[in-house]
């Protein structure tokens, strides 16, 4: 067990039989809802979604998850078992893309603002620079460098409980962003590089915002 993960041995679940004993049997509908291809409703959900999270693994098995977002319809449905996701400019760490080359297994979570339900999709991904595909993903005249093409292994709608518990879309539950440091301050504090001068910090924050505007696509 990793250092810092303090669980008394008698309280740790280490076998699936122990886990299953804690819960009621899975409802039949929860098993049957998993499909191996995109039905009409799954396709409509994906076309309406402006945001997804993609989970991958490093060659050593370390988990990673990354957000992807664009206007609704940004994910191309190539056929009932294949979708394509444009890769927009980011920080060039290339975590997700490198992981896919090493291990093609991916998990996707599609989200629609205002919907408490989400769509889960598990499959195998490849990276494509097909000009015909990329040309359909152009925004403001700019093409993505590549697309993540995912073959669907299973897809299913996930229930609304998590979003309802979190009150994610409830305006009354919104938190003020200013109650925490800016992204730039957060990062620089963590690496002991934040400037002491407030004006200098403000300029760094403004620079990040300018970069957002210049490199969105």
The side-by-side strand order for the widest beta sheet comes to 2-1-5-6-7-4-3
Question: What CATH architecture label of the largest domain applies?
Answer: Roll
CATH topology of the largest domain, anyone? Answer: Pnp Oxidase, Chain A
Which percent bin holds the helix content?
25-40%
Number of helices: 8
What is the N-to-C succession of helices and strands?
A: HHHEEEEHEEHEHHH
What is the fourth-level CATH superfamily of the largest domain? Electron Transport, Fmn-binding Protein, Chain A
N- and C-termini, Cα separation: 42 Å
Mean of all residue-level pLDDT scores: 95
The CATH class of the largest domain is identified as Mainly Beta
For the secondary structure, the number of strands is: 7
Strand content: 15-25%
Which class do the helix and strand fractions yield?
Answer: alpha+beta
Q: Can you tell me the number of structural domains?
A: 2
Largest sheet: 7 strands, antiparallel
Shape: globular
- Low-confidence segments, given as residue ranges, are none
Radius of gyration over alpha carbons? 21 Å
């Amino acid at each position: 067990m990793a250092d810092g993960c303090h669980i008394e041995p008698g309280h740790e679940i280490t076998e699936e039989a122990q886990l299953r004993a804690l819960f009621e049997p899975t409802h039949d509908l929860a098993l049957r809802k998993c499909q191996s291809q995109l039905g009409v409703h799954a396709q409509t959900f994906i076309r309406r979604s402006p945001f997804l999270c993609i989970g991958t693994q490093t060659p050593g098995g370390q988990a990673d998850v990354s957000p992807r977002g664009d206007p609704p319809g940004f994910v191309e449905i190539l056929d009932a078992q294949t979708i394509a996701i444009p890769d927009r400019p980011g920080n060039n760490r290339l975590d997700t893309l490198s992981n896919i080359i090493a291990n093609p297994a991916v998990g996707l979570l599609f989200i629609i603002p205002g919907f408490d339900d989400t769509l889960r999709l598990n499959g195998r991904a490849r990276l494509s620079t097909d000009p015909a595909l990329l040309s359909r993903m152009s925004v403001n005249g700019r093409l993505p460098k590549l697309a993540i093409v995912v073959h669907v292994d299973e897809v299913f709608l996930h229930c609304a409980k998590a979003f309802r518990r979190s009150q994610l879309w409830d305006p009354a539950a919104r938190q003020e962003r200013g109650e925490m440091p800016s992204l730039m301050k957060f990062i620089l504090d963590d690496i002991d590089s934040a400037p002491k001068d407030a004006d200098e910090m403000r300029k760094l924050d403004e620079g990040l915002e300018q970069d957002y505007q210049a490199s969105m696509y």
